[in-house]
Amino acid sequence: MRRPRRATVIALGFVAILAVYSATILVGMHVRDLSGLSEIPALPVSARVLRKPAWTPPPLTSIPAGPRGESVRLGMRIFNETPLYAAHNAGAKISCGNCHAEGGIVAYSSPMVDVAATFPQFNVRAGHVISLKDRIQECFVRSENGRPLDYQGIPMTALVDYIAWLSTPEPDHKPFSGRGLVDLPELKPDAARGREIYAGQCAGCHGQNGEGRRPVFPPLWGPDSFNDGAGMHGVRKMAAFVQHNMPQNRPGILTPQDAYDVSAFIHGQPRPAFNPAYKNF
């Protein structure tokens, strides 16, 4: 029997690596039928308990026909691939779905489910009552390091329609639980220790220099990341997101102290400055 050529072995190895990477993309970012996200397999039992949604998202077949349905689909695309579908307004290489995980349905990952019903609300940072559209603008000028959308424009309408569709109640009207982020205790972070945690747990996906690996893993610092006015620039808020949701393929393995430490390290890295012209958002 002839031994396989070295080039063939290398090619097979590359195909295997590509298959694993593609699976990560599909699970992490681009599962087309959102109703399939009610269970997340291949995780430790403790992580499955934490990540199991208390609410099943509507199937894509429930998107209405006609202009409203087209708007929902556009909103979904903007949400999951913001730099591509809202390029004029997004300065960062970050999508809404990077912080509001899996299309905005994961509990304790700032989910979008039923969020429209919470507006209008008083916003402490803005110092006044804001609408859902105002909150979307905040994301674009801070997390996206970009510019505001046209309030009456197609992209804004599409995002609002997508959020409204995502909040379609289940047949038994079971309420969604898991609003916002997990509540972590106030801890003293150690950025030096956080550097080591980043190297061991984060750099494989987000890069040694925080540059990310687009389109799946967003940049965490540098010119393509969120600016210093974004919510994720706060150590405690980032720690709450990280502890429950990261690493993406092993969520729940970091302790609250680990999350604080790595968030402090990321917080100390260079990033764009917030544009004060948008301070009302």
Tell me the strand percentage band: under 5%
Q: What would you say the CATH architecture of the largest domain is?
A: Orthogonal Bundle
Q: Largest beta sheet: what is the strand line-up?
A: 1-2
| Number of DSSP helical runs | 11
- Uncertain parts: 6-51
Shape: globular
- Between the first and last Cα atoms, what is the distance in angstroms? 70 Å
* Integer tally of domains: 3
The CATH class of the largest domain turns out to be Mainly Alpha
Overall helicity:
40-55%
Tell me the name of the CATH homologous superfamily of the largest domain.
Cytochrome c-like domain
Content-based structural category: mainly alpha
Characterize the main sheet: 2 strands, antiparallel
- Using only C-alpha atoms, the radius of gyration works out to 20 Å
How many beta-strand segments? 2
Task: Give the overall pLDDT as a whole number.
Answer: 83
Q: Provide the succession of SSEs.
A: HHHHHHEEHHHHH
CATH T-level fold name of the largest domain: Cytochrome Bc1 Complex, Chain D, domain 2
